[in-house]
Amino acid sequence: MIIPLSSMSGIDTVAATSLYSFDLKLFGLFFLVFYIIPYPMYRCVAHYLKWELNVKSLARHWQDLFDGLNYDLILFIFGNYTFTMHWITIAAFFPSLFIYGQIAELPATKTSLPNINQWPKGMWVVFLIALRGYLHSIILAFAGYHIYLACQFSLPFVIIYVSCLSIPATILFSAFLLAKEVNTNWLRTKFYFVFRKKQAIDNESGNHHTSTPIADEATSLLPTTHVSTLPNPYTYKITIHLHHWQIFYVLAFFTRFQHPVSQIGAGIVLACYMEGICAYGYDKLVNEEAI
User: Is residue 105 helix, strand or coil?
Assistant: First the structure.
């Protein structure tokens, strides 16, 4: 039984505007078609063609399986795949999976996005062609058409639809803030200098009422001598590595319409997402490294 748990525009358009929905049998089919079958298929083909693959132990395959179950469950519920999944999506998925895998094998594309300052000339050529050529136009056309599809429904659906882009943006921003704090001791240093500045102003004005026992205890661990930076208490550093599986996983939430263009788009972004999982696994956005 399909359970449309929330609708923004009434029961007549629940299929397109459900905030979340779930059907157990359809989710089983979704996980079978978009994970269980392509995972070993891609690894066998990639191994035969000598494509790049991470060596995975049985434990890592097991971990990826259950990570995939969790990620795909969230995507299925909030990506509206109860209604969006179609034979068109499946037909677009499998060719795209191997086409993207072949593109990823080009020597010029074997460089990660975070290493943009170390990209070879070939990677820049591919990037600029994608940015200025047909791929750029196709991406903009897909994005624009999905916003157009969202506009076909009553307000505030299109506003909520576009605003949801702030969710992954907020997650990414918080990751960079975390890296800044751990790597540069930013927050503690800011707190220390703000407190010292306030203390100096209070001393100049003769106001000593802020020297309560609680404040003394809270700040007793801070250095009393004048310093420009504080010792970093963290014993590791953080690096941010944005993987292509994360980008396409996010995009898969927005191909939520029962329209052939959206269903084709869903197959393509699901394929690009799964190529990263099949080849490398669920690599993390935030990584800890020893100093």
Answer: coil
Structure-block tokens of residue 218: 């809270």
Q: For tokens 């434990």, what's the residue?
A: 59
Query: Do 108 and 120 contact (CB within 8 A), yes or no?
Result: yes
Six-digit token pair at 56?
Answer: 């995975």
Counting every residue written for the chain, the total comes to: 291
Each residue's pLDDT tens digit, 199-253: 666 666 665 555 555 444 444 444 555 555 566 677 788 888 888 899 999 999 9
Beta bridge partners of 3: 22
Residue with tokens 């930076």: 229
Measuring CA to CA, how many Å separate 81 from each of 20, 157, 252, 254? 9, 17, 10, 10
Question: What SS3 string covers 50-94?
Answer: CCCCCCCCHHHHHHHHHHHHHHHHHHHHHCCHHHHCCHHHHHHHH
Three-class secondary structure of residue 164 per DSSP: coil
Contact 256, 15 (CB under 8 A): no
Best CA proximity match to 240, nearest among 185, 187, 181, 158: 181
CA 289 to chain centre: 21
Could you tell me if residue 281 is left (phi over 0), alpha (psi between -120 and 50 degrees) or otherwise beta? left
Query: What whole-number distance in Å separates Cα of residue 162 and Cα of residue 25?
Result: 30
